[in-house]
């Protein structure tokens, strides 16, 4: 049934109009593998080849039969979907399996505890909250230690010690001739203010980590982020591919606390590092920035620089994880070892909403479990579907990973061929496994007026997607923050015939763009 209401559209009403203007307003009523079906005006069912793949949530395709059967079975047997604050052995089972994969891909890296969530942004916010809990506790320990030192200093001063006048007092903004007690009070006052300062996060330019209150501050796209910047901690975006950029950013954000040290008959004011930077977060393959993988050299430098200041690394595998790139963790291909990993999207097998955050045991704080929870997280349905999804990825010695690498290479080779054929239209083709982007050259001067206009509005990728859907029954969408790049994230089951269909559709598109053929490309 397809109810048509007489009233106005109330469900995200603006989006409906935008979809219509781009020719993307179809309602899919059925899905299987890499195909979505809608009915046209005549009621005829149209099969669309889906390369969006649920924005990365359907690495095993839509409605994978084993997952559908499992879901049905769970509901038939009356599994208690919601039984919060009871034992969840299946959640432990999932955490153990993912830990075993971590060991296989990264070596003996120790255990990671798992916290469960409902969405990618929530998994990111769990990592952020945990890192902040850890940071705040470290600051508190530091403050307690300094308080102890201040008491020792008072005792030393009472015994005749003095405070030598040096430039640290200038930084403390007390007069060099100030009485010793005033110096100690100034230390306490300055530290209270410095320790209470908001933390800062570091992330590569182009990062996308979600759109909730906290995570959107880690998302570089100014349109998504800036209206909400007063709501959460700040992130500094770093051009990490430049060799010195991260070290410079860390230096620029560095903070200190004052401490006092008794040294013979002198009480010296000294400065100590204050952990102001909460975490460094990155995607191993940037998704929304236009599908941009990080190379091994950059990743090694990032890890070295972060380790030097004990800065935890959050590896966001929400989009790149779950086998899409040819390994379970995309980060393992470049040796990027995280203190935190986030998983979501395909974790739910394209059926459930499931997410998890892995936290390295050496940093893990048990008390986090008492301060973070969600009604829906770790529910039996999603967690068991996630476990079955992991099983399917791991089956037959990891056949799915091999398939992702092989299918991805084939798709990439085809796209590279098109790039060579249409150098004036295609700027670049890049990706890893089944996470691929095709970047278009600027079309704002196109002879096709519709294309030029959409390009000037930053909607080029959406306009191209509308054309591919209408004219070739191909579903493609641009990356969220680089709308000149079309993303291709089909399932591992995409066939040679389907890749040929993609090639034919794209060749027609590229030909029309090259020739500025308005009639071919503008909506009728
Ligand atoms: N992290 C990454 C790397 C993502 O790509 C996304 C979502 C999120 C976190 C947030 O996950 O949507 O479940 O809250 N990327 C989407 C996309 C929106 O367009 O690919 P979420």
Automatic annotation (TrEMBL):
Family matches, as SUPFAM superfamilies: PLP-dependent transferases
Q: Which InterPro entries match?
A: Aminotrans_3 (IPR005814), Class-III_PLP-dep_AT (IPR050103), PyrdxlP-dep_Trfase (IPR015424), PyrdxlP-dep_Trfase_major (IPR015421), PyrdxlP-dep_Trfase_small (IPR015422)
Cofactor(s) needed by this chain: pyridoxal 5'-phosphate
Question: Taxonomically, which superkingdom?
Answer: Bacteria
Instruction: Output the Gene Ontology terms for molecular function.
Output: identical protein binding; pyridoxal phosphate binding; transaminase activity
Any single Pfam family the record assigns to this protein: Aminotran_3
Q: Does the keyword field hold tRNA processing?
A: no
Which UniProt keywords are listed? Aminotransferase, Pyridoxal phosphate, Transferase
Q: Entry's Gene3D superfamilies?
A: Aspartate Aminotransferase, domain 1, Type I PLP-dependent aspartate aminotransferase-like (Major domain)
- The family this protein is said to belong to: Belongs to the class-III pyridoxal-phosphate-dependent aminotransferase family.
Supply the name of the protein: Acetylornithine/succinyldiaminopimelate/putrescine aminotransferase
Recorded source organism is: Actinokineospora iranica
């Amino acid at each position: 049934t397809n109810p048509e209401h007489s009233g106005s559209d109330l469900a995200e009403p603006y989006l409906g109009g935008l979809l219509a203007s781009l020719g993307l307003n179809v309602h899919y009523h059925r899905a299987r593998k890499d195909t979505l079906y809608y009915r046209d005006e005549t009621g005829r069912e149209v099969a669309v080849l889906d390369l969006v793949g649920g924005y990365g949530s359907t690495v095993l395709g839509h409605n994978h039969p084993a997952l559908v059967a499992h879901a049905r079975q769970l509901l038939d047997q009356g599994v208690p979907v919601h039984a919060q604050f009871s034992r969840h052995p299946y959640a432990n089972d999932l955490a153990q399996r993912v830990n075993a994969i971590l060991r296989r891909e990264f070596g003996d890296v120790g255990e990671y505890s798992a916290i469960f969530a409902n969405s990618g942004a929530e998994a990111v916010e769990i990592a952020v909250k945990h890192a902040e809990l850890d940071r705040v506790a470290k600051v508190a320990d530091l403050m307690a230690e300094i308080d102890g030192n201040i008491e020792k200093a008072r005792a030393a001063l009472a015994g005749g010690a003095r405070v030598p006048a040096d430039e640290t007092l200038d930084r403390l903004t007390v007069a060099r001739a100030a009485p010793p007690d005033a110096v100690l009070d100034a230390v306490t006052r300055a530290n209270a203010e410095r320790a209470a300062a908001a933390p800062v996060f570091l992330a590569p330019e182009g990062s996308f980590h979600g759109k909730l209150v906290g995570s959107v501050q880690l998302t570089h796209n100014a349109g998504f982020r800036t209206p909400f910047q007063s709501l959460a901690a700040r992130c500094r975006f770093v051009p990490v591919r430049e060799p010195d950029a991260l070290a410079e950013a860390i230096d620029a954000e560095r903070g200190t606390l004052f401490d006092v040290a008794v040294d013979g008959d002198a009480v010296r004011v000294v400065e100590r590092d204050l952990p102001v930077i909460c975490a460094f977060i990155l995607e191993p393959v940037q998704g929304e920035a236009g599908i941009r993988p990080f190379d091994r050299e950059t990743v090694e430098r990032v890890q070295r620089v972060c380790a030097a200041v004990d800065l935890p690394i959050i590896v966001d595998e929400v989009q790149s994880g779950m086998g899409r790139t040819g390994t379970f963790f995309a980060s393992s291909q470049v040796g990027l070892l995280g203190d935190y990993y986030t998983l979501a999207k395909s974790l739910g097998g394209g059926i459930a909403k499931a997410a998890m955050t892995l936290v390295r045991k050496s940093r893990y704080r048990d008390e986090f479990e008492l301060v973070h929870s969600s009604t829906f997280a770790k529910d039996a349905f999603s967690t068991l579907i996630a476990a079955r999804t992991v099983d399917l990825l791991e089956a037959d010695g990891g056949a799915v990973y091999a398939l992702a690498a092989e299918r991805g290479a084939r798709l990439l080779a085809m796209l590279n061929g098109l790039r060579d054929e249409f150098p004036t239209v295609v700027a670049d083709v890049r990706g890893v496994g089944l996470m691929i982007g095709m970047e278009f050259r600027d079309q704002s001067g196109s002879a096709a007026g519709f294309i030029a206009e959409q390009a000037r509005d930053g909607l080029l990728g959406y306009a191209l997607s509308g054309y591919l859907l209408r004219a070739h029954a191909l579903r493609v969408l641009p990356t969220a923050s680089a709308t000149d790049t079309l993303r291709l994230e089909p399932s591992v089951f995409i066939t040679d015939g389907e890749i040929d269909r993609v090639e034919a559709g794209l060749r027609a598109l590229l030909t029309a763009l090259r020739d500025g053929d308005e009639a071919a490309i503008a909506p009728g």
